[in-house]
Automatic annotation (TrEMBL):
<feature type="domain" description="Nudix hydrolase">
    <location>
        <begin position="187"/>
        <end position="318"/>
    </location>
</feature>
<keyword id="KW-0378">Hydrolase</keyword>
<dbReference type="Pfam" id="PF09296">
    <property type="entry name" value="NUDIX-like"/>
</dbReference>
<keyword id="KW-0520">NAD</keyword>
<keyword id="KW-0732">Signal</keyword>
<dbReference type="InterPro" id="IPR015376">
    <property type="entry name" value="Znr_NADH_PPase"/>
</dbReference>
<dbReference type="GO" id="GO:0046872">
    <property type="term" value="F:metal ion binding"/>
</dbReference>
<protein>
    <recommendedName>
        <fullName>NAD(+) diphosphatase</fullName>
        <ecNumber>3.6.1.22</ecNumber>
    </recommendedName>
</protein>
<keyword id="KW-0479">Metal-binding</keyword>
<dbReference type="InterPro" id="IPR049734">
    <property type="entry name" value="NudC-like_C"/>
</dbReference>
<dbReference type="InterPro" id="IPR015375">
    <property type="entry name" value="NADH_PPase-like_N"/>
</dbReference>
<feature type="signal peptide">
    <location>
        <begin position="1"/>
        <end position="16"/>
    </location>
</feature>
<dbReference type="InterPro" id="IPR020084">
    <property type="entry name" value="NUDIX_hydrolase_CS"/>
</dbReference>
<dbReference type="Pfam" id="PF00293">
    <property type="entry name" value="NUDIX"/>
</dbReference>
<dbReference type="GO" id="GO:0016787">
    <property type="term" value="F:hydrolase activity"/>
</dbReference>
<dbReference type="InterPro" id="IPR000086">
    <property type="entry name" value="NUDIX_hydrolase_dom"/>
</dbReference>
<dbReference type="InterPro" id="IPR015797">
    <property type="entry name" value="NUDIX_hydrolase-like_dom_sf"/>
</dbReference>
Length: 344
């Protein structure tokens, strides 16, 4: 069984302290999902996140950093009219969520419009999502990741798999319905396990051939039909590196938009320190090897700022990725263990 972290166990207590605000927001959001008229009304006073062929719009701040561009309804209407598009195009937006004060948030792909003209009008630029992750905050990364996933799902689910007939969305975009068969389709995420394997002193990282030079990450893979998380983790580690997991500990989860839309379920795994010989599956991985605490700390301190210009040598996924969270947690545990041994 997975052993949950204390933080995971305590999340209910944290939510209960602000339960009234959280519950009211969630019920407001559910109403917008289900009620077409309420959602259309919300479009008049929402905030919008634009994408051009799934690349989010970013703007430069006064300090030279980048942020995700958020446009109000009136701003977006003027921008659309300036590039020759009817402002009713706003109705093609999809509901993302709502802010803490209840303001609805929407995503809209404007890929059919001229990119350069839009960038001038919006005073920003459309950036590939993988690169954008290096330029914006973790909270913004989560938001634009969700926005892109929703847009992509609608772009690739326009027809019913049973009848071949077109599907029709509701206003919020929370469902698509085949009017011929009545089948309702909901946006879905595929469950993916990601695991950082340790022998107690070192951690095991691997790389695929498609990774940028020098990048190593935790082992990951899709859950097979009918598998539990535990079964998938044991299988992936055995398949990819030929090791047998003895102990698992749950860390957290993250939505991941690549290659489609996945729910990453992150865990730590322990293997027997007397049985650490890696037997690589070369159809899946290019390389896998053990790293020391010192190597990991050096990689965390020297993370590249741009994936197109990575640091020379070994580096790990950036802070927005849950693989980074696993690696940081492991490094912190190693540091605590070392300090305890010094005090003894």
């Amino acid at each position: 069984m997975l052993q949950p972290l204390k933080l995971f166990l305590n999340c209910t207590l944290v939510l209960s302290r602000s339960c009234s605000g959280f519950v009211s927001r969630m019920r407001h959001l559910q109403r917008l999902k289900d009620d077409d008229e309420a959602c259309r009304e919300a479009l008049k006073s929402g905030s919008f996140y634009l994408y051009h062929k799934l690349s989010p719009l970013l703007q430069k701040t006064s300090k030279g950093a980048f942020k995700v561009a958020s446009l109000q309804t009136s701003e977006l209407e003027l921008i659309l009219e300036s590039v020759g598009k009817d402002k009713c195009f706003i109705n093609e937006s999809f509901l993302l969520g709502c802010t803490h004060n209840g303001e609805p948030q929407f995503s809209l792909d404007v890929g059919e419009l001229e990119r350069a003209a839009l960038e001038r009008e919006c005073r920003g630029m459309f950036v590939d999502l993988r690169k954008a992750f290096f330029m914006i905050s973790a909270s913004e990364s989560s938001l634009v990741s969700k926005g892109q996933a929703i847009l992509r799902w609608h772009q690739t689910n326009g027809f019913c798999s049973a009848t071949g007939q077109p599907t029709v969305r509701n206003q919020s975009g929370s469902v698509r319905i085949c009017q011929s068969s009545g089948v309702t389709y909901y946006p879905k995420m595929a469950p993916v396990v990601i695991v950082l394997v340790s022998d107690g002193q070192r951690c095991l990282l691997a790389r695929q051939a498609i990774f940028p030079p020098g990048l190593y990450s935790a082992i990951s893979g899709f859950c097979d039909m009918g598998e539990s998380v535990e079964e998938a983790l044991h299988r992936e580690v055995a398949e990819e590196v030929g090791l047998e997991v003895e102990k698992l500990q749950y860390s957290g989860s993250q939505h991941w938009p690549f290659p489609q839309s996945s729910c990453m379920l992150a865990c730590h795994a322990m293997v027997n320190p007397d049985n650490t010989q890696v037997n690589l599956d070369k159809a899946e991985l290019e390389e896998a090897r053990w790293f020391t605490y010192e190597e990991i700390m050096n990689a965390l301190k020297n993370a590249p700022l741009d994936p197109r210009r990575p640091s020379p040598g070994f580096w790990v996924p950036p802070s927005y990725a849950i693989a980074n969270q696993l690696i940081v947690e492991w490094a912190n545990q190693q540091r605590l263990s070392r300090n305890e041994h010094k005090l003894q």
